[in-house]
Specification:
about 450 residues; alpha/beta; Rossmann fold; eight-stranded mixed sheet; about 15% strand
Length: about 450
Amino acid sequence: MEKRLSFVGLGKLGICLASCFAEKDFEVIGVDIEESVVNNVNQGLAPWYEPGLGELLAKHGGKTFRATLHHEEAIEQSDITFILVSTPSNPDGSFSNRFIESALVSLARALRDSRKDHHLFVISSTVMPGSTNEIFIPVLEEHSGRKLNRGFSVCLDPDFVALGNVIKGFLQPDLVIIGESTPQAGTEVEAIHRQMCENQPTFSHMPIISAEIAKVCLNVYITTKISFANSVANLCECIPGADVDAITSAIGADRRISSYYLRGGPSFGGKCFPRDAKAYVTLANKYGVQADLMHAVDKVNQYQDSHLAESVLRELQKTENKTVGILGLAFTPNTPVVMESPAIKLIPELLKHDLPVLAYDPLAIDETRALFGSAIEYISSAEDCLSKAGLVVVTLRYPEFKEAVEKYKSQNGMVIIDCWRIIDPAKLDRQIKYVAWGRAQEIG
């Protein structure tokens, strides 16, 4: 018998995961407290942009993927419930469980009133290690009147996807980690993943506490790798002839290192990386374990922000046109999310010096306007940004930015600061000064 699935929390990840299961022939019901999100799903419309989401919802929304405001329907109409609600950061860096607990209370009460023998709860939200055994399972037992592994079971199935690549991340994961209250529960979760996945990922079964720690550790390791590459880029800038891309490409070919996330550039941002790093430090402090490495990672990340601002201000001293254009406002390509992006952290530093700022991003203009209002000017294209600015910072690896800069003919001279070295300096107009992070030489 085909397992029926429900998803509580139709945020940027939950709605994508539910859509992926619907695409693979599961009957899916989604639950969210936002009526607008529920209505959008049932009308087959994407509430926000994520590559591939619009197409999946147009195909399945209101059909095999239906949404509701009522948690009871998740219990009544499914066998397995995935919980992917937000876990915002507390002031101390830990993750708040309040939204998960609220959802679990509603789900448990519905289970209490249900005649079904068993229900499987799968927590996919990022949580502080220990939360499932110490908080979530007791909440479920208290409000359902049932005992763990008798009337219900629990798995911890963390996501490892990235905004801008969520759909592919769910359909073609490298690994699936399953923390399980019983082997049978873990087997059920693996089975539905195997039906959804378009590849053959590694499945790792483990105790729930280990799965909670693994989720945080994976992201923390990536931030360490990013900061190492950034520190190499900073070193290369000071050594004539050195090229960070040649170095990271070479050492990344070694299987012990790999090339993923090993490319010098701006600071890491977004929702997950910064907060997971802080949560790891909080967890380490709780148990009296040193977290010196993570403090160093954070220090490098903060330095990248100040380094970018200093690079811009230094080059502006030599330009007549003090208007700064920024190409790339989101923290990564293919998403409108601007949380802790290098550009969003750069803009206030420029405004402190009363510099005119132009901003362009194919997806993140509205989100940036919500932060800065009329303090900066919003541009409709990369070409328009280039025509008005005396200095342009390229913060994201969009092909359209590369193409626009390489084709642009400057009348009065300008500076390009290329944070990712995506531009071929040989193709640039002679009036353009090119500054590449991670390389000592400046061409132009």
